[in-house]
């Protein structure tokens, strides 16, 4: 993998550590809690215990319970309290334990956080981050595997972000916390401990073997609205994000097709230019995501590419996605869009 | 065959319907002066009685009686009377303007003026209210510029909210008035979050959350009480029980056989049930709750017992679901009349002064309306700019909105 992210910050001084995505996310919160007194971190089990995925471990001990604290099991309460804190002037980073459990908070996120700046003409804002582990590939079944990004990308006023590696996770989370717009920060939990290319029958590789695990210790940003070309290629563009970035890389390697793999990173608003430049160049496009197909975020990508690259397209745009079913348990690997399905799509678009 | 009779679904009904008078005994009123006044550091469970009784200060003769009565400064009471009267005249005039199609929609607070005005005067200017659409009294008590409020109602070129919001959904950060949302109940938990933030920062400001009886059934009400209790947030949680939520009687919201104030006790929150049409009781209870919050003693839930005297909104016709003369029979009367009687009884006010004040305020509202209409009325030529529609969705205009604005040709 090309560590394209390096180019985001040309002058990158200081020490680095080899971090997992969990540690990188924790480090981002640590850095921001240190830098800005208005940052507070809360959610279910995030305080003393440090989070069910350890993303907030040690933060309460370091910053105190008035900065990092446990919340009642009430997603509407967590989101609503965050909106109130934001209106006061804090920068809350609220955790929703699983993206599958964000639905009780949808009213507060859609009707309030996303609209507050607009409806008050900027008198009140929502500089909030809602972190939530998402995605499948972990035998999580129906309510520990969902990818609800399309529920958020269609909400005007929200930013939706999803990292695919430790370096981006920290830099994007810092940029999200600093954003004065509300950010839905989706964390593919299948990537927490190591990259995953969909070959579930092979041993898990830890992050330490990958360049993107070299994470600066201090403050840095990966800017929002900027996609990363993680594998330059000439034949076909793969537009993806999260876990399927790694799947796409595997599929390119296994098919021998010279695919340009783009990690969109900021799903909405997005870096349209990088995407259209690539599709204009390759003339072919495959969109890959774990989420269900119909009215998924991929439909918007297909539509945008069709609109902006129509005359350069040499084949119909393909989508490889989760099926239009709830996420099953036993059938995990028939559901998850793995490298063979993505590879087949790459071959199909090359055959046209 | 079952040995039990068939089960039956219970669907609460109000006693009064069009043509049939309401039996207001369900309110379980008690005489002025009866309720005790505990110290502000009372344990929440020890407010159980106060959550079922009714705190009232003004008796039938307009005298202030009982432990909650205090010697109020005449100036403050006159300020309250003025703000209440202004609110009522403002409502009446805007109702008329809606009928004349100068604005698309309006909501009065007829009969509920004492609550918002009284609490505002009991709080400090930098405390933050999270109101519903029926607390315009807060803005009037804090002397928001009337012409600007009317520009919001008219959605005209001077609308501070640039025509984006329905009429009455004001936002006045500088006056401690949070942006109103159309989604019921959402602001209740936000008030708690704001109060938590004040505590996190070691501030001394407190928040006031507002909700109607109907909206207490929303999940955010439950979340607000839970969070307020868990974090001992410095917040006053107001429930304005005006007996009606559009056409549904408060029993459908869960008020049958219990008081809404009692909800607080179950969450571990000190709770008061107060005569919402008794301006002195509103002041006294609000001060008590504010003191409690400011001393870090935690939240207070207050159920204000009042009556929604007017239609729910300009789109509503109450004669279809309740007796036409219901307000006239409501045992707690009219808040303005009651404060007026008290002031007259104390020799601080007179009918003539009242009439003169009404005339003065009427002229003030009329002048404000005229000034506002100079900048356009709803759907007139003087409308907010269409290009503005794309601003403030995000902090900066993202490329897709820039493109859409160009597509609109503005
Ligand atoms: C979440 C939501 N559901 C429904 C509505 C429609 N609605 C607007 S006002 C109202 C009644 C509210 O009654 P109540 O809370 O008692 O307040 P009141 O109008 O009496 O002041 C309803 C149902 C809404 N605005 N928001």
UniProtKB/TrEMBL annotation, chain A:
<keyword id="KW-0786">Thiamine pyrophosphate</keyword>
<dbReference type="Pfam" id="PF02780">
    <property type="entry name" value="Transketolase_C"/>
</dbReference>
<dbReference type="InterPro" id="IPR029061">
    <property type="entry name" value="THDP-binding"/>
</dbReference>
<dbReference type="InterPro" id="IPR033248">
    <property type="entry name" value="Transketolase_C"/>
</dbReference>
<protein>
    <recommendedName>
        <fullName>3-methyl-2-oxobutanoate dehydrogenase (2-methylpropanoyl-transferring)</fullName>
        <ecNumber>1.2.4.4</ecNumber>
    </recommendedName>
</protein>
<dbReference type="InterPro" id="IPR005475">
    <property type="entry name" value="Transketolase-like_Pyr-bd"/>
</dbReference>
<dbReference type="Pfam" id="PF02779">
    <property type="entry name" value="Transket_pyr"/>
</dbReference>
<dbReference type="InterPro" id="IPR009014">
    <property type="entry name" value="Transketo_C/PFOR_II"/>
</dbReference>
<feature type="domain" description="Transketolase-like pyrimidine-binding">
    <location>
        <begin position="19"/>
        <end position="194"/>
    </location>
</feature>
<keyword id="KW-0560">Oxidoreductase</keyword>
<dbReference type="GO" id="GO:0016491">
    <property type="term" value="F:oxidoreductase activity"/>
</dbReference>
